[in-house]
Structures are given as C-alpha cells and as structure tokens.
Amino acid sequence: MANETGRIRVSVVGAKGRMGANVVKAVTDAADTELALTLDAGNDLTEISPDNTDVVVEFTVPSVSLSNVLTLISQGVDVVVGTTGWTDDKLDQVRAALANAPRADQAVFIAPNFAISAVLADYFAGLAAKYFESAEVVELHHPNKVDAPSGTAIHTAHTIADARRAAGLGPVPDATETDGGSRGQVVDGIHVHAVRLRGLNAHEEVLLGNPGEQLSIRSDCFDRGSFMPGVLLAVRKVSGHAGLTIGLDTFLDL
C-alpha cells in the first residue's frame, strides 16, 4: 500500500529503542518509504490511523507487544512486528483480532528474525535435519536482551522438529540423567542453549550430528543494520498478505 506520492507511510512504535532507531533511519533513507509517526512508551497509539499511516513497524518488548498489536489492529493499519516472545496463545489473540478487524484485508506480519542470514540458516536447518541423528541449537546475544532463548532459536527448534517428524525420526539421543539445567531448554524435543555475553550482537548456530560427521549452520549478525533489509522487505510486502503471517521466508524466493 502506498500514498499518492507512491511511497509507503511508515510509523514506528518503539522508535527510541535500539532497533526502533535503526528502523527510523532505514525508513527515512529508503526511496519508497516515508516516516509518518514515531512513538514510544507513554505515547498514545490511537494517534496512528489509516489517515496518516500505511504500515506500522513495532519493535518494543514482549510484555507490551501484544497489547500494542491489538490496538494497532483496531486502528485499521497493517503491522510489521519485530518484538519476540510470541506464544501460541498470543498468536491466537492476534488472529481473533484480525477476524474482527476494521478492514477485511488487514495484515499483521511477525518475524522471529529479520536478518536474511538467520532466515536462511533456519531454512537450511529444516532441509538438513532429516539426515542427522542429533540436533541442537545454540543462540548467542548481548546481555541486554530480555528474553531467552531467542525467538529465532525457538523457531529454528520447531523447524528442525517438524522436519524430523516428517522423516519419521525419533527423539534425539541423550543419556543425561540429571543436568542441573545445563542442557538448555527443550523446545519441541530439541535442546536450545542461550549465551548472553558482552560484545556479542545476534548469533545462532545449529549443530547436526551423525556417527563420524557433523554439520554446523551458523548465522552472525554483527550490527543491527543487518536487520534493516528484512524490515523494509516486510514493510513492502505485508499489505499483500491479509491475516497473520509469520516468518520472513514467506517473502523470500525459497
């Protein structure tokens, strides 16, 4: 969707945050988008409407993201969400809100990760998982990240588990009796480990193993600017996909 200038009017919620500030710059710099409103904690989201905004980019924190998205749906605008921490229950609430949205073609897009490398790593892990007996996921982020494991790692674990089930594979081998928590969180049968370390940004490694061999698939994002091509891609595509869409792979030619 674009206005009479041919550019997409984008409002940013969470504009003062680390990711939000990068989104503001990316939208301002892109030739086919223009910055509409910038809002943060304490601002009234009902300022956003179809009169001033085509697409909203929401980058906040998991504790408020659902409420933000539900409000934005009621305002009649399409939403691109970069905040993680989404559960099945929260997603169901978004679907229900969309079913009663002001516009029949209203759209919400949620991405576990906007980095092209991370999306491809997840995709490749799904292709490879059925060929390996063992699989684990390690995600590494800066210590200011509030959720663990990351939404990206949880999504990757589900991708691997889905591929294993489709191939008829059983549980991954693990003879550990008591681990004291050191084996990480089990997501859909896949162990996921979270590292929080100063100096890191956003990194994920998928480890796949067979007797005598190992495949490692790794994505490293060293700067938040690496997410902006994916954010802009979602901004350009979201309005053509009514309802709830999850995952940037939907907009890539995979």
UniProtKB/TrEMBL annotation:
GO terms for cellular component: cytosol. The keyword NAD applies. Pathway: Amino-acid biosynthesis; L-lysine biosynthesis via DAP pathway; (S)-tetrahydrodipicolinate from L-aspartate: step 4/4. Its main location: cytoplasm. The keyword Cytoplasm applies. (S)-2,3,4,5-tetrahydrodipicolinate binds at residues 142, 151-152. NAD(+) binds at residues 14-19, 82-84, 111-114. It is found in: Cytoplasm. It is an enzyme of class 1 (oxidoreductase). The active site is at 141 (proton donor/acceptor), 145 (proton donor). This is 4-hydroxy-tetrahydrodipicolinate reductase. It comes from Bifidobacterium simiarum.
